[in-house]
Amino acid sequence: MIPHVLPTYNRAPLAFTHGEGSWLVAEDGSRYLDLGAGIAVNALGHAHPALVATITEQAAKLWHVSNLYRIPEQERLADLLVANTFADTVFFTNSGTEAAELAIKMVRKHWYEKGQPDRTQIITFEGSFHGRSTGAIAAAGSEKMVKGFGPLMPGFTHLKFGDHDALRAAVTEKTAAVMIEPVQGEGGIRTLPDACLKGLRDLCDATGALLVFDEVQCGMGRTGKLFAHEWAGVTPDIMMVAKGIGGGFPLGAVLATEAAAVGMVAGTHGSTYGGNPLGCAVGAKVVEIVADDAFLAAVGQKGARFRQGLEGLVASHPEVFEAVRGQGLMLGLKCKAPNTDVVKAAYAEQLLTVPAADNVIRLLPALNIPDADIAEALARLDRAATRVKADAAA
């Protein structure tokens, strides 16, 4: 008999009642150190006092009115994002998947309005993840996501990650955009080098194609900059944001330049819940905290400290770990042992990590994780690796 909750997840046998900072408390009272943060969602940890106060205050005033009317909280968050990014305009969604759908629509509407309606091809890359909707899975194109869900939306060209020759050959007069994650999350914490991001910007400038960045997982301070593309000193035309922007509240956004958003006028897109007062009030508080230069500098310092410790674990457990990947507090351990074995061993040490492709475990803690918790995380990962070796030898 099918469960009442549709069984589309392989869930760990854990359930949590509450959390504080980097810690979650399970039903039996045991405490787990959370290095997943809801897959990079709880950017400020669990039950952050400023977010609790903000959502409580807004909930007592107004939750939802719909986009039939002005929403001051939405306007305030849009102002903050425009002030801190390349963008001229913002559309609010409830998730990264919805942001991907709008980004695809915006690209195609741009070229329709420019008198080139046949310019619809979007270049994407192996290992990418842009969400679970039909458009988003067509964009990523991996067999795991698309099998059984055809026919797929046409108009995507899938290239191998890092194949520069294939990229140059794929760009034609029909290319509408290049869409890429500056750091792949689901794909295994694979960082696109700064030179490659600059090269993409130059290629798009030369051909007129739009450059679309998916910063749903790598954005909102995760790498030590507000957005990961800032490390390369380039800007996109369109960017998808979600996860950390709501600090745990469902919230996403598409940021765009005025030129890229041409044609997106009344009636071309909408969302019932997107940009609601509750979500935007929380999002504005998150942006106020995370966009602060001192906060971002601290993320970089914590990431460097964590990475140094992880390099030590790789050296201590070469049978289990192979290398450290990532930047800031978006880190990955490339494993030699099956990554699922490492994740399970970490559960036994009351430590939460997130598996990814390419046999990687993701380490995505709260951006304000205390140094003491980083040290504790390293100690528990050390013990988890010892467990993996012991199990393999048994």
Textual characterization of the structure:
The radius of gyration is 21 Å and the shape is globular. Helix 2 runs antiparallel to helix 9. 48% of the residues are buried. Strand 1 and strand 2 form a beta hairpin. The protein has 394 residues and is an alpha/beta fold. The protein is built from twelve helices and 17 strands.
Features:
17 strands; 7-stranded mixed β-sheet; alpha/beta; Aspartate Aminotransferase, domain 1; Aspartate Aminotransferase, domain 2; globular; about 400 residues; 4-stranded mixed β-sheet
Order of H and E elements: EEEHHHEHEHHEHEEEHEEEHHEEHEEEH
> CATH topology of the largest domain, anyone?
Aspartate Aminotransferase, domain 2
Q: Mean of residue pLDDT?
A: 97
* Unreliable stretches: none
Number of strands: 17
Q: What is the domain total for the residues?
A: 2
User: Radius of gyration from the CA trace?
Assistant: 21 Å
What is the 3D form? globular
**Termini separation (Å)?**
36 Å
Strand content: 15-25%
